[in-house]
């Protein structure tokens, strides 16, 4: 097998493996440096979340820790855009935090 054929097989296998093991959907928004670009209003914000104390700025490290410690549970942690109030659900994939748009109306 030539190097080119070998690379093609390797790349195909990596793509197949990533597709199967990477559940990140096209509409999920990656949180970078604690911020995200809202899919609804387009503003870059720190997400907010609901707590027993009301809506507060999301503690990204705490949310990540909760999702890591409960990987198979049905835990839902909601994120909110502070500009337009669009609701999201925090998702953790490969130690990266994402926001999945909620099906709920804002």
Main sheet: strands, sense, barrel: 6 strands, antiparallel
Low-confidence stretches: 3-20
How many β-strands, per DSSP? 8
The portion of residues assigned to helices is: 25-40%
The fraction of residues in strands falls at: 25-35%
Order of helices and strands: HEEEEEHEEE
- Count of alpha and pi helical runs: 2
Secondary structure class reads alpha+beta
- What is the alpha-carbon Rg in Å? 17 Å
Order of strands, widest sheet: 1-8-7-6-4-5
What is the straight-line distance between the termini?
A: 55 Å
Mean pLDDT: 82
Shape: globular
3D architecture notes:
The chain has 106 residues and is α+β, with helices and mostly antiparallel strands. Helices cover 27% and strands 28% of the residues. The protein has helices at residues 3-21, 60-69; strands at residues 29-30, 36-37, 44-45, 48-51, 54-57, 78-80, 87-93, 96-101. The strands form two sheets. The chain has a six-stranded antiparallel beta sheet with strand order 1-8-7-6-4-5. Strands 2-3 form a two-stranded antiparallel sheet. The longest helix is centred in the N-terminal third of the chain and has 19 residues, at 3-21. It is globular, with a radius of gyration of 17 Å. The termini are far apart.
């Amino acid at each position: 097998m030539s190097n080119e054929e070998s690379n093609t097989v390797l790349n195909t296998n990596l793509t197949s493996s990533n597709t199967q093991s990477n559940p990140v959907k096209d509409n999920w928004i990656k949180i970078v440096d604690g911020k995200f670009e809202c899919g609804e209003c387009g503003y870059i914000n720190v997400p907010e979340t609901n707590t027993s104390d009301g809506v507060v700025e999301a503690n990204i490290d705490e949310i990540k820790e909760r999702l890591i410690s409960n990987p198979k549970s049905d835990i839902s942690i909601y994120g909110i855009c502070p500009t337009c109030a669009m609701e999201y659900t925090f998702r953790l994939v490969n130690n990266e935090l994402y926001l999945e748009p909620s099906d709920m109306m804002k």
